[in-house]
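This section describes the prediction task in plain terms. A model, or a person checking by hand, is given the sequence of a single protein chain and must write out its three-dimensional structure as a string of C-alpha cells. No templates, partner chains or ligands are provided. The sample shown here is typical of the held-out split.
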Amino acid sequence: MSLVQLIQNAWNKQSIWLIVLRPLSCLYRAGFLLNRNLYNSGFKQVYKAPVPVMVIGNITVGGSGKTPLLIQLVNYLQQHNVKVGVISRGYGGNGPFPMLVTSGAQVTQAGDEPALIVQATSVPMAVGPNRQAAIELLLESSEIDLIISDDGLQHWALDRQIEWIVLDQNRGLGNKKLLPEGYLREPVERLETGTVIEHTHKPATELNMYLETGQPYLLNPLSNSKPSFNLENNYHAVVGIGFPQRFYQTLKDLG
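The expected answer:
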C-alpha cells in the first residue's frame, strides 16, 4: 500500500495516529494564511476579469460533487440565455496551456473533467494553471456574460463575485484538521465566507444537491445490438474520482 493510500484510509477512519502529522499541518496553515494575507493586502496582484466570475469548489481533498453541479448549472444558465463560459486548471492535462477545450478535445491535453464538462454542455471553456490567461483566451474567442471557475476556491490570484462551496455531508469534514493531519484545504471557518451547497439526501438547509444513480449501460457494446448491462455477467470496475468509496457503494446498491 502506498503512503498516499495509507493516509487517505486514515483520513476516512479518522485514525488517532494522524496526530503525528500535526507539525506539518501547522506549517501548512502558516503558509496558507501567509499567502492569503499577501493577496488581501495587495502585496500580490489579484486579477479582476471584465465580466463577473463565479467559483465552484470545496475545502476538502477529494471529490465533493462539484463537477456534476457545475454541469447542471451551466445547462440551466444556457436554457435562460445566459452566455456562460468555464475555466479550469486542466488538472491531468499536458496542454499546451492556455487552451480552448472543444468537444473533441483529448483528455491527455485538457484533462478529464474539462473534457467531460464540454461534452455534456458544449460550453465555451479554456483551461490552464494561469487563470488570467485562460479567461483572456476565453473572452477573445467567445462573447461571455459570466465565467464559472471549476475549482480554484484557494486560487487567491483570481478575484470573484460569487463562491459556491460544495460540502459532501456523507463524508463530512473528517477530523476537521488541515492537511496532512486531515483532508481540509482550508480551515472550517472558510464555510462562513461562501455559499455552502450541501451534497446529501438529507439536507439541513434549502441549498442542497444530491446525485441520482442512473442505470448502468455499455459505452462500447461488443456487437451492433443495443447496449445492455447484465448483472449476471462479471465486470471490472475502474474509478478515477476523488472519493472512490462513493462509486463502490453505488455499485453495491445496484447489486
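For orientation: The beta strands are 53-57, 84-88, 99-100, 125-127, 146-150, 162-168, 195-199, 208-209.
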